[in-house]
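Sat 14:20. Reprocessing the chain from the morning session after the first attempt stalled halfway. Input below, unchanged.
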Amino acid sequence: MGDNDIEEQDTFPVRMDEEGDNRGSPKRRGRRVEKFQKNFSRWMLPEELRETYLERANCCPPPIFIILVSLAELGVFIYYAVWKPQKQWITLGTGIWDSPLTYKPENREEAWRFLSYMFVHAGVEHILGNLIMQLFLGIALELVHKGFEVGMVYMAGVLAGSLASSIFDPFSALVGASGGVYALMGGYFMNAVVNFREMMPLLGVFRILVIVLIVGTDVGFAIYRRFITHEVGMKVSFVAHIAGGVAGMTIGYVFFTNYNKELLKDPRFWMCIVGYVAAFFFAVIFNIFLSPAPA
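Finished this time. Tokens:
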């Protein structure tokens, strides 16, 4: 009789712990994370890929690429805004034109500038716009597709932006990470359009309209600064926006629609890679032998 009493007393607190207030228990936290991932997958993936994602979903590794790139861009901006003698907080200043990171047509033989220009921005509104968009969209994409895929698309957009600008707007300078940001938007835009019926259709229209509105406003403002305003100093090209978006709608689309699939077996992947490499070599030859920009 005494043993039965002891057993009942031992099991009583365990039952209370399991059925009572256990909001901090690992099981409850796991359910919250699972619910978040389930809702998240509906935004980022078509229906046939969601189950696979949920089976392997985790935050390891975390979205480290887009965070590190954003911190580097912010650090460079603060450097030129605070430690250089200019009013860089508001608008363009002379400091960034003298930066070894800025792409300038007369310095195009310094090949690193075709990538490093993404770290230099032309004012507060410029860097805030890029950081907000790439963090908002890049973190979401990296949680699903991981850093390698997002990094490849982002850098492909940055390089495509500078190479296209050197061809179609050869006398203009280039600053900002818009090429990489537009590559992410282009890849997600194509994914949302192609899988429109499978990725929450009612909100699909909203996603597409938001991207179109942002792109239209930003490109319009870039064209206005390039052709209409008469600011003193070197003109900044807008071609990187368009080229980055095209890179995203091709390479980005292939990467972001091949979740859990082997890219090397996808003919679309090779078509995009061959096209990108061909355009790359054409741009290199153009800059070496044909560019009208000053040497």
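The first helix runs from residue 2 to 19.
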